[in-house]
Design a protein that fits this description.
The chain is mainly α. It folds into two domains: 80 residues, Multidrug-efflux Transporter Regulator, Chain: A, Domain 2; 153 residues, Globin-like, CATH 1.10.490.50. It is built from 13 helices and four strands. The termini are far apart. The relative contact order is 0.06. The C terminus is likely disordered. One of its GO terms (molecular function) is DNA binding. InterPro entries: DNA-bd_dom_put_sf (IPR009061), MerR-type_HTH_dom (IPR000551), MerR_fam (IPR047057), TipA-like_antibiotic-bd (IPR036244), TipAS_dom (IPR012925). This is Transcriptional regulator.
Length: 277
Amino acid sequence: MRLRAEERGGRVGYSVGQVAAFAGVTVRTLHHYDKAGLLSPGDRSPAGYRLYGEADLVRLQQILFYRELGFSLDEIAEIFADPQANALEHLRARQRKLEEEIARLRRLAEVAQRAIEVQRTGVPLTPEERFEVFGEITFDLSYATEAELKWAHSAGRREAMERADAHTKEDWRRLMEEAAAWRAELLTAFDQGEPGDGERAMDLAEEHRLHISRWFTSCPFDMHRRIADDFAADPRAFALVVPHSQQRPGLAAYLREAVHANAARRTGGPAEPEENR
């Protein structure tokens, strides 16, 4: 349908409804731009209706262009308010942000691909078998995704994932039985009031470090400290070693203390890295 424009004094004007139709926006949006001071119709029809002129349409195109790039209305108003404003600098800054967002989305796509590969190449287990092998240990997808992004370029994490993918159902059964026996010892030591920097707790920390090395990847003491820090800081991480039903208040911090004390005992360094003291 051809839209008729109002002609007044040799000038062509378009109603708000007409502009909304051919610009692909709503009338409400145009009213919002008007209220925000970004785009006000510059003319009126003989009947008193406000009309958009050619210059208004050019300005609308600019607004829609900046909006498509993610600029807020306040940012667009700032660009329009200063005739000397360097729009190129604004565009370059937006380009940098868009490239960062593209990189982030690519990393997420890689994580999704990784999850697909794990599902495709991992050990197929029925829900009954999964509970039989893993018990109450839960794998929080949100934590797994964050960890994948955080450690994506870590050789240790890559090795751990590759070795985990290669484990058979029987491997996982043995691994989890070993972990359950260690966990029972940890809970007993904690419940009996053994100090976190005591011999028994440190020995348990060393067993945990060797467990990681045996089943996943070489775990030097600095890596083990970072893992324990995650246990104390993030309940989702700690749930990978102690299910929620078996956790006690302070247990994650207790394990962290034991890990740091064990690292200090075996390396001769401080129980706590200097940056954390």
